[in-house]
Amino acid sequence: MDATDRHIINNLQGDFPLCERPYAEAAARLGLTEDELIQRVEAMLENRTLTRFGPMYHAERLGGALTLAAMKIPAQDFERVAQIINDFPEVAHNYARENAFNMWFVLATETPARIGEVIGEIEKTTGYPVYNMPKLEEFFVGLRFEA
Amino acid sequence: MELNIIKHSTATSPRPPVDEADRRLLAAIQHGLPLTPRPYAEIGAQLGVSEEQVIARLAYLKEAGVIRRFGVVVRHHELGYASNAMVVWDVPEEQVTELGRCIADFDFITLCYRRPRRLPQWRYNLYCMIHGKNREEVLAHLEWMVNHCGLQTLPHEVLFSRRRFKQRGAIYTLPAETDGC
Questions:
Q1: ipTM score for this prediction
Q2: How far apart are CA A117 and CA A115, in angstroms?
Q3: What is the pLDDT along chain A (147 residues), one digit of tens a residue?
Q4: What's this model's pTM, rounded to 2 decimal places?
């Protein structure tokens, strides 16, 4: 990644213009040409520096639901349980963490009711309880990284 | 490299009206905006609406907070943010809001939520996420935050991630911002 790619990443994580020629306008802000910006974004998508170029939605405002859930899994059974959890399409991500509660995953579902169903299915298939820890109050969310 | 944060306030606003046409529009761009000079015209052509209507509706959805942000979505591991810790605190209910706001004020915090306790196994009710290049950096940030917000006496645990099994964002019918915790 060169300085221009970093410049694009650092300045284009939000506020993409809504106008007829948005790439041209964003490029002008960055001191690039429209062509160059499009080509660089394309290249960064291809080499997987970027996951995508587009919108991040607010799940709850679209009628969907999100929650964080945790489990305590014995070491010898960890791989089996991880596989089961990861196979659910509703699991957005799953992290092993250093704690007695060692499995932490986020569920993203199209309806709030589906959260409880998925949790029930995971408990039944794995044989371990799932601790559901939904968001009660949000003080801050704003994941943004500087390259 | 430094974390650079945007602030949102989204806690309890009512859900804005999103109709079927909006859903089709959001679905059409969920995997990415076309990389062509007039992307909104292309989306409009796909959906049978004008470029102008696409732009106006996206502006509305952004204003309403349905679109949280719009631009490049990076893989933070690939940018060198290899260490992430979820830090959980046991905070008396009457102090949660004040401490949550204090924690959320730091640049290196990427998420800060109140969540329910699960007693007796899990006593923690305030969560934050710290991303850094390595553990030392994350722990130094944490120490600074503990001193600044007066968190020294509150029980807490630091849960570094050991493995990332899956990270795809929440793409089911529509993607949402779910990174971190």
A1: 0.78
A2: 5
A3: 899 999 999 899 888 999 999 999 999 999 999 999 999 999 999 998 888 899 888 877 888 899 999 999 999 999 999 999 999 999 988 999 999 999 999 998 988 999 999 999 999 999 999 999 999 998 876 665 666
A4: 0.76
Measured between beta carbons, the chain B residues lying within 8 angstroms of A143 are 76, 110-111, 131, 177, 179-180
The nearest CA of chain A is from the CA of B119 a distance in Å of 10
Find out whether A52 and A41 touch, Cβ atoms under 8 Å: no
- Which helix (H) or strand (E) segment holds residue B73: the answer is strand B67-74
Q: What's the rounded Cα separation, in Å, for the pair A59 and B44?
A: 24
Q: Tell me how far apart the alpha carbons of residues B58 and B47 are, in angstroms, rounded to a whole number.
A: 14
Give the other-Cβ count within 10 Å of B49's Cβ. 17
**Alpha carbon of A138 to those of A27, A96, B9, B122: distances in Å?**
34, 24, 8, 20
CB A58 within 8 A of CB B10: yes
